[in-house]
Design a protein that fits this description.
The chain is mainly β. About 0% of the residues lie in helices and about 60% in strands. The chain has an 8-stranded antiparallel barrel with strand order 3-4-5-8-9-11-12-13. A two-stranded antiparallel ribbon has the order 6-7. Strand 9 and strand 10 form a beta hairpin. It is elongated. About 30% of the residues are buried.
Amino acid sequence: MQSSVTCSGASYDFIFSWKKKATESHWTGLGFAFSNLDRLKNADIVLGRSYSILLNLMDYTISIDPHWLFVAGLGMDWTRYHFKGNTGLKEDADGTNRFIPDENRFIPDELNREFKSNKLLAYYVTIPLLLEYQLKFDGNKLFFVHGGLEGLIKYYSKSQLDIKTSEGIRKVEYKDLNILPINARLILRAGFDDFSIFGYYQPFSMFQKGKGPEIYPYGLGVMFNF
């Protein structure tokens, strides 16, 4: 199966690559990370149920020398955050989805009902711009580390509340919520051969300024590179 194309010193690799060469990047693959929100107010996150699933589909690499690579690519990120208690992320009462400046929109339920589930979903297309270093030692074992910036293009988001009532579970959804459509995060990944650990931090608020809570996603996870 052909999964790598080389052109003018650069190469294109896809997720179904069978074997990595020393000059190929370690971007494509499947990853999982526990996610959190920096500067979160008026709500408590459930760390064990807040996570990101990453599917990095393809990359474009340029070899600078036998050890250094410039990497770009394309991937997907599906992230969900779960919260404790009966405080949910809601839109304005008039339904316009415009937030009051400087207010945190995690609002307690007006009837003090119990929430079975309380979550925020945000799905992105990811576009990395990375610099990778590779070093082969101890026979054929390959160590690598790369870092840089991942662009984020949001294509779906919602807040979902599952509220316990006398008649059963009532589902309430709020769409969009003024999450920034384009954002970016810093990422650092290191590993051996086709396994790595990584961390990321988003230095820009998740929401549009003055239209939502000022929170900054970050996470720590593992990646299986294909």
